[in-house]
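Chapter review: from sequence to fold.
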Amino acid sequence: MKKLIALCAVVLMVLVLLAPVGCQQKTSDIIQNITIFKWGFGDFVPPGGWTFQTTGPHPTEVKELFDPGDKMNLGLVIDRQTKNDITFSRFTFYNRQTGAEQEVVAAPKDYGPFEPDGEYFLGYKNPWRVPDEDGEYELRLYMGDELVASALFNVGIWPVSWGPEMIKRPAPIYEVRVITGPQEPPWLDVVVYIKGGLPQGCEASYGWSVKQAIDDTIYIEVTIRHLKDVPCEDYVYFEETFNLRPSLLKNFTPGETYKVDVNGNITTFIMP
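The token string follows.
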């Protein structure tokens, strides 16, 4: 009987010691969603339902294609079952072809701490510059020495998983207008309207990005992508309207005249 009691005591002690371990969440389960965005949305979080997706911590699809010199933002959703705030130790770009890994230059607030069951946008004010070398990459997120999340992207190389190769070139621009405030909400004071051409018959799409402001000029690049080696005959019009980021306009003086250059098409506006 004494041996049985002793054995039961040992088993009970083991169960007590193991119970907390069984309740602990694996670090691999902390990230519910990780989504890469090409920078260009400025001071506003990208629209859409990305926060409702469940990609898991290591999605296997290539999310985005960048050109050298482009910048990225990162969307994260922290799992609601996470018990404590989390803080990342570092972010890296891992070249899946060469095995080289380089540190990402990120703002201090991008490391956390982040609360559970939250949606976060990293690189919000200070987007991360992608590698200058063409390649297939993996953005890696670490806690301590442990890799807890990653996301795939390419620089300059069309992802094979995306299907037939598309080529990128500047879009033809037919009209550029700048609309100035006051508008609602108040930060939408300078709005750019662009009318461009999109080829037909070759599965074409378009995109835009505000590259930079130099002296009195804001440069905007509008590009189109279409299937390689497929003839594109006629063009149809597309229209795009978006606001210029306050961070681009912070050094502009009200009442002064400035320029917007869209693929070499220049128009002027008076800063409100």
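Two observations follow directly from the output. Residues 2-23 form the longest helix (22 residues). The chain has a mean pLDDT of 83.
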